[in-house]
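Section 5.1 Outputs to date
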Amino acid sequence: MTETTSGPARGSRSKGSKANKGLRIERIHTTPGVHPYDEVVWERRDVVMTNWRDGSINFEQRGVEFPDFWSVNAVNIVTSKYFRGAVGSPDREASLKQLIDRVVRTYRKAGEDNGYFASPADAEIFDHELTYALLHQVFSFNSPVWFNVGTKQPQQVSACFILFVDDSMESILGWYKEEGMIFKGGSGAGLNLSRIRSSKELLSSGGNASGPVSFMRGADASAGTIKSGGATRRAAKMVVLDVDHPDVEAFIETKVKEEEKIRALRDAGFDMDLGGDDITSVQYQNANNSVRVNDTFMKAVESGSSFGLRSRLTGEPIEEIDAKALFRKMAEAAWACADPGIQYDDTINHWHTSPESGRITASNPCSEYMHLDNSSCNLASLNLMKFLQDDDAGNQRFDAERFAKVVELVITAMDISICFADFPTEKIGETTRAFRQLGIGYANLGALLMATGHAYDSDGGRALAGAITSLMTGTSYKRSAELAAVVGTYDGYARNADAHKRVMRQHSDANAAAKRMDDLDTPVWAAATEAWQDVLRLGEKSGYRNAQASVLAPTGTIGLMMDCDTTGVEPDLALVKFKKLVGGGSMQIVNNTVPKALKRLGYQDEQVEAIVAHIAEHGNVIDAPGLKPAHYEVFDCAMGERSISPMGHVRMMAAAQPFLSGAISKTVNMPESATVEEIEEIYFEGWKLGIKALAIYRDNCKVGQPLSAKKKEEKEQAEPEVEKVVEYRPVRRRLPKGRPGITTSFTVGGAEGYMTANSYPDDGLGEVFLKMSKQGSTLAGMMDAFSIAVSVGLQYGVPLETYVSKFTNMRFEPAGMTDDPDVRMAQSIVDYIFRRLALDFLPFETRSALGIHSAEERQRHLETGSYEAADDEVDVEGLAQSAPRHVAAPKSSGSSPQSRSGSESAKEAHSSAELVEIQLGLNADAPLCFSCGTKMRRAGSCYLCEGCGSTSGCS
């Protein structure tokens, strides 16, 4: 993109900035004269979201308009979370067009008002390109943008805030108020309490100070109260304390003691499950805690020497402690309850662009945003899978050129937003406008690595991740320098120019020193190198518009909005996912990235099909037919038979960290069997590898967790027996809200159609849906009516074999050849449908009496004279009673979660997290969503609900 002279900027120029110019905006995806909306197919859908626990409807909006390629999940989440206006009122948004226009037009107008564009034509290209990228899920702004921009309410665009608290009661009470206002708006905040005097120091009156830990109680209670006031996400907060604070041991032990209290109260009969009536009596549960360590302390740990705790008033040591013992205490606490995390102070401030304006002392709740106190950061994330392409020869490549152009577009929009944004406090607004911190990042890294045949924990995977991160941040600062030439540098730049340019050189040097691995990452590294050269050249000339450019956020809700398989920097959760279907229902599917990975690794279509079928049945790649053991690592996930090692997570963070302005929101997951020594190793290696912050989570280290099946059984057993009343009439047995199903496409005599058959959790067909012809036609209407009649009959107890005997051999057009190898000829559509249902759901003996056999059985009859399988063969037909086709059936009669069939898993699960737990026999203590009751899953250091998009953090 080139620059040209334009009119003066209004309201955005910094002191001493040069004559204003305007940006020439280049087209990336759009065509002159064609609006992006006119290039996609739009359709109307009904969004009805229920609470799976009681079936109640918690959101409903019908007839919303979205592109036909948007998934059910993305449509549900955008409609329920981001559409503005009262539901049912004429003012309620009902189309994705309205949502995107509301945001894009605000950005365009602010850009024009503040002199960002060279001409009206450039403003229009900016409008169209931003619209295209949002429409096609190439990137997304963070949630506050969708909540607030273009509405009558304050236009807050930031998700991340850092507050300041000093050693005075006025400041402490101000902290409570500011934090509460941020929570009220659905965002999160972090702060460092180390300026507050310790309980070991004296007040001016002569008494002992309360210490920061005591003041944490009040803030925690406030956060808990606001959380319970009806918000769909908990109050997200981060509390940091320096390692040399005299109260650091008490800070480390706060949550450990509360966890012991939870255990004692639970054993005494109190309801201490998540969301339980008595859990609110426990303190310090609404914050993430982190200890801020420095190099002096870590070197003392390494050498086994002592370390001084210092007075907050004088800075003098008041107590000497064993550094290694304190470090051990941190690891023991994290082992017991996952807190505290760790932040590496000297590493953080080594990469600080504005040290003359103050040190970086804290982070936002998810630990990715780190900058000055009383500041904020707005986020946006790119969908990396949108840039993976096949060249003319069928080889994969990452489109670095297009990626860089999109980064330039997004950074421009993010900087424009600061011109019109509102902030929760005046101090935060002043600091943010003066330093213009941005947080561009990405999602779908785990999916990208798998699709390109890279193991997450591999040199090749880390090289590609590092290259993309370097190109993203380098391009961001290049655009920041170009913006500085157009509308001026950030206000604090002049004072911090030397430090800012030093950090740019550090990034560039890290890029030059990085190891190149293969044909995918090498071109990206080359593009990144060119970008960093431009950064240094343009920055020397014009300075920079932004003190910070990039972070790696959790991308929870916006990741679902973009239909991403993985969040932020995370690997894939598991190879088998839980997917919602249009029209209701759900099914489990093998990740779409698996076939792409297999093709990248050189497997043929037949081999890919066999391996995918194995994964669908077993949930892992172990012993998959034809898959080389050397390739197993490519399919390692966060959970499962072959889960990524904790150090694999740490090494990936280290690969991306040198190329980020901020830090990374990520939790290092550890098995329940992990030791304190292993946590010490991770915390120590994190420091050695140059990571800015990390946290660990050991499986099942928390007591409070969702109500278990065992407790439900005990409650049922305790209830007195009541004589049952027998009704001598048909009773309808309805299917549960979540039920397993199988959709079959078929062709009969050239006529195409689809059949979806859903089952009961225990056994038996429960409903059938048939789709043929266009919606609204006579044939489609008759098929709908026929489906309802059959489904109601099944639910009132009409045996499937009765329908099969009545409808098979019925003759009418269309009839003839089918595309089903088991039913090669059909005398009508209903003849085919009920033969297929018999094969899928009736036991062998029953359908054999009706003369219905599979192709394999007919072949066996020709060879042996018998339709039945030999004793050493699996009775697939018998298993089909409880397991539809292509879904794994139980291998044993055991009742362990590992032995459950895929169909049973799908019946019981309501999210991918629950499906994985059922398949693997896990009992993870992720919370249930407060909005819809679905088990949430981790996204960075937060939790995400796949059902409704609610998050526990600040993204």
